[in-house]
TrEMBL record:
A GO CC annotation given for this chain: membrane
Chief location bin: other
UniProt keyword annotations, A-Z: Copper, Metal-binding
All residue ranges annotated as the Cytochrome oxidase subunit II copper A binding domain in the record: 65-157
A Gene Ontology molecular function term of the record: cytochrome-c oxidase activity
Protein name: Cytochrome c oxidase subunit 2
Pfam families, alphabetized: COX2 (PF00116)
Stretches that traverse the bilayer: none
Subcellular location: Cell envelope
Taxonomy of the source species: Archaea, Methanobacteriati, Methanobacteriota, Stenosarchaea group, Halobacteria
Length: 157
């Protein structure tokens, strides 16, 4: 079969287009999934959080001289504890899980932001600076009360 140069260009262009489309589909499916693995932990039973050490009582615990861990539960439609109180100028690792459906945990005005997936524990470590109050919003649609789902983070001296 003889193919003109002009047709070869279009053939090459179509192949590239197909590869590009395949690439974007793969990226969309795998990209965020891979990203989530890095900040999630072992699986947990969302219906039995009360029976776990960390989430039966959502709280902030001191684990080092200047280090704290915050165990946070998201559920329709709020976050516990309320408010989340952490010391200024410290290192805080947040462990966030959901008691029901997928939520978001976004501390407004900061880069502290993660998806909260039932069965998984999202882990994020941050350094706090001066005292401040932040709003926490849910940025994943989670039901009728999604738009009123919010919390508070207080960084205190
Ligand atoms: Cu929880 Cu939207």
């Amino acid at each position: 079969m003889h193919i003109h140069a002009y047709e070869k260009i279009w053939l090459a262009a179509s192949v590239l287009l197909i590869l590009f489309l395949l690439g974007s589909v793969t990226y969309g499916a795998v990209g965020p999934g891979v990203a989530m693995v890095s900040d999630t932990e072992q699986t947990i039973d969302p219906g039995a959080l009360d029976e776990t050490d960390r989430f039966s009582e959502p709280r902030v615990e001191q684990v080092g001289e200047n280090e704290y861990e915050a165990y946070v539960v998201a559920r329709q439609y709020g976050f516990q504890p309320t408010p989340i109180v952490v010391p200024a100028n410290s290192t805080v690792t947040f462990y966030v899980t959901s008691a029901d459906v997928t939520h978001g945990f976004e501390v407004a005005g900061t880069n502290l932001n993660t998806m909260v997936i039932p069965g998984e524990v999202s882990e994020i470590t941050v350094e706090t600076d001066g005292p401040a109050e932040y709003g926490i919003v849910c940025n994943e649609y989670c039901g009728a009360g999604h738009h009123v789902m919010q919390g508070n983070l207080e960084v205190v001296s």
